[in-house]
From TrEMBL:
Name of the protein: Alpha-glucosidase
Recorded catalytic activity of this chain's protein: Hydrolysis of terminal, non-reducing (1->4)-linked alpha-D-glucose residues with release of alpha-D-glucose
Family statement: Belongs to the glycosyl hydrolase 13 family.
Entry keyword annotation includes Transferase: no
EC number: 3.2.1.20
Every Glycosyl hydrolase family 13 catalytic domain range: 15-434
Record-level Gene Ontology MF annotations: alpha-1,4-glucosidase activity; alpha-amylase activity; glucan 1,4-alpha-maltotriohydrolase activity; oligo-1,6-glucosidase activity; sucrose alpha-glucosidase activity
Gene Ontology biological process terms from the UniProt entry: maltose catabolic process; sucrose catabolic process
Organism the protein comes from: [Candida] railenensis
Amino acid sequence: MIQDNKWWKDATVYQIWPASYKDSNGDGVGDIPGIISTLDYIKNLGVDVIWLSPMYDSPQEDMGYDISDYTKVYPKYGTMEEMDQLIKECHARGLKLVLDLVINHTSDQHKWFQESRSSKTNPKRDWYIWKKPRYDADGNRKPPTNWISYFSGSTWEYDEKTDEYYLHMFAVGQPDLNWENEETRKAIYQDALKYWYEKGVDGFRIDTAGMYSKRSYEDAPIVFPDSEWQPCKEFHQNGPRIHEFHKEMVEQVTGHYDVMTVGEVGHGSREENLKYVSAKEKEMNMIFLFDLVELGSDPRDRFAYNGYKLSELKKAIENQSVFLEGTDGWSTTFSENHDQPRSVTRFGNDSDEWRVKSGKLIAMMIASLTGTLYLYQGQEIGMTNVPKDWDISEYKDINSINYYAELVKKYGDDKKKIAEFMKTLNLVARDNARSPVQWDASAHAGFTTGTPWTRVNDNYPKINAASQVNDPTSNYSFWVDMLKVRKSNKESLIYGKLEVVDFENEEVFSYFKESDDGKYKSYVVLNFTDKSIPFKSLASGKTELLISNQPDLVEDTLSPYEGRVYKVQV
Ligand code: TEU
């Protein structure tokens, strides 16, 4: 992988999801002054860049990913002056600030959509995707296609006023923009990008970056026979003009600034993924792939969860990294974000006995892989999923709520089915990432002095930042150390080629990371079980231990959840 002077390659990025981060005024919702008050905490962790999830004006049907005005700040989060101050305060500490670019869709409250829906002849009619109804043999009105929305039900919403349907891949209140229309694209570039670049932001995380170019509007093949709505990725993911659109965006706007961009792409073939990130293509700097975070789930339905074997986790990690090898492309390493459960619960063991140690194990894994590293708020202190016994009423995410409602419609009072689903929901729901950050052991974990908009995880008295920052044995301190190890061995850890060894081993994950010129090599060994396992080094040269989560380790035995990162003398 090419090591050059691009600042974003070595960077560690910390994602803030504003609603649940830190409340400064007691209204129960996180806000921008709250973020500013924690910048030193973030800096001290060893982070270089902050990615702030949407803080734009929004009716919050999908927690800000439904934007009603790109050039305004959501009043509960603060004012434009406070955003300006955040940019300034970040820069004063040597931190960069990256925003979220949500341009596949707007909110239905955006003035563009209000105009578009007002009549068929409105000049902005074609800014969104409108189609005529279909009728079945009995004359019943039906949507234009059988596509299923990411948030359950049809992707089409009927609008009585003009007797047409509009497309929404996500919530009903998130109509898809029509990227085929050049005027629409120009308006997006101006409001969503240029406006913020001119204010000094350092780049964007590009939401649903593979979805703007729709392939065609036809029925999808039936894969869920008992549902009217069918998965339709092939019609909207990596569509025919997607790369042209990204190139245009770079040429017209992004390319004029020294910024970074990371696209949420999710899935694709090696060739397709490379098109987004290859330096010569000039589209974006890196992408997020979902192989790891969707492990065990059906990619068409995250709540169809069947578990996974360690070898599948290895495969997922390999898929996310090896497509880059020998190319001029770049990518990311991460295990959490606002759409995913907590990784200690998901990939480690969140029991009191192993929580801290397995959190460190995952830190060693994620921070020894190639690409720009992303951490999600609370991950640094080992926050876990919400408790298993919480009622459905504690879940606030539209994704969870809609899915649950469909299930109740389908299975009625089948208590067994619903109880089974609640187990899966608890394991994979986005709500797990969205419980407030646990700052200290005071009421509501110090997140707010008021009533939190969503419930604080009951475990905050034992898991919180205040008790960890000065404790050398904490998850927080381990992250600080691990980030230092990563940077001081960057030739192998940040830029190296991945070689998984002992692939079939379902208990231990071992791999080498080697610099392109073969001069630097690291050896990572991770015991993913709660038992001790005999260990014999597979490194051919002499090894020097760089970091481990086991204080007095025994050379030839891996204790439960023990991880080690060695430097190999070559
Ligand atoms: O997510 C897009 C996406 O494809 C998924 O991660 C999605 O959230 C998941 O499959 C639902 O089960 C982005 C944002 O990250 C997400 O928060 C938004 O809800 C979505 O786009 C719409 O803007």
